[in-house]
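Hi R.,

Here's the chain you asked about this morning:
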Amino acid sequence: MGNIIGCAADETEVGLPVKVTFQEVEPHVVLPQFTPAGPGG
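And the predicted structure, written out as tokens:
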């Protein structure tokens, strides 16, 4: 589970191609975050 970042909530939809990035929120705690992949994935 993670968040979609880099776009407004109303721009998201099921099937949206995304890329994963990781954010360290505490030492040794890293969470996945997703950004739109753009054209071509």
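The first strand starts at residue 3 and ends at 4.

Let me know if you need anything else.
M.
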